[in-house]
Write a structure and sequence with these properties.
single chain, 238 residues, mainly beta, YmcC-like fold, 13-stranded antiparallel beta sheet, 13 strands
Length: 238
């Protein structure tokens, strides 16, 4: 009985493990390389962590500012932004679809705000949910919620995206030039429609605790690799 009491006490005082799938160290740079179906580099990305908040491992938030440089193209630099939130169980990531167009209009990045974003979302007629939720307690085979969203690209062309049929797969270890990572693994179907053009791909992604995305593979419905993204380097601010 005494041993049982000590075990219960130990369980009460031991901290509960929490998995937050993004970095909360401001200034950290996550470097990625994107490849085509034959393994040729098509672009590089540098995600810089900013405005990060870490509340003792139970909740947190951060912004990833992503600079994308496409190879063999003029005017080859573009931008996007990802907002991350952790509530103690779920990590939620939402791509800010308006940040890139705002920068592309030669507007001052320092003046970008929530009000500007919401106004642009209204102008673009954004509708739906483009968030990604990762549950740290999920097990292999558990389903991911479907998501659908649409918005007008360049103020005119409507783009519709459906993310469906998603599920968690068994966790995997992933090795890249940036290191070795214990990853949660997910897969889902991504359908896009813009005017008369429709595309459907199977997307598989690997996420690591305190990092975020480590690896991403996109396949056609016939199982042919379309593209791949890899985390290649992590640079921490001195």
């Amino acid at each position: 009985m005494k041993k049982l009491g000590m075990l219960v006490l130990a369980l009460l005082v031991c901290p509960v493990a929490h998995a937050q799938y993004f970095c909360t160290t401001n200034g950290t740079e996550l470097h990625y390389v994107n490849y085509d179906d034959v393994g040729q580099s098509t672009s590089s990305e540098t995600m810089t962590v900013a405005n990060a908040v870490n509340k003792g491992g139970f909740t947190g938030s951060a912004e990833y500012y992503d600079k994308i440089v496409t190879t063999k193209m003029k005017n080859n630099t573009s931008y996007t932004k990802f907002n991350w939130i952790y509530d103690g169980t779920n990590t939620v990531c939402v791509e800010d679809l308006m940040y890139g167009p705002y920068i592309a209009s030669d507007s001052d990045p320092a003046r970008y705000s929530e009000d500007i974003k919401n106004a642009m979302l209204l102008d673009a007629k954004f509708n739906g949910d483009n968030s990604l939720t990762l549950n740290e307690k999920a097990s292999g085979g558990e389903a991911l919620p479907d998501r659908t969203f649409s918005y007008n690209v360049s103020g005119m062309l409507k783009k519709e995206v459906i993310l469906s049929g998603g599920s968690y797969l068994a966790p995997e270890k992933v090795s890249t030039t940036a290191g070795k990572f214990d990853c949660i693994k997910i897969t889902y179907l991504q359908q896009t429609k813009q005017m008369l053009k429709k595309e459907t791909f199977r997307v598989t992604e690997w996420y690591a605790e305190d990092i975020g995305l480590v690896k991403r593979e996109v396949y056609t419905t016939k199982g042919k690799l379309r593209s791949k993204k890899l985390l290649t380097k992590i640079v921490e601010k001195d």
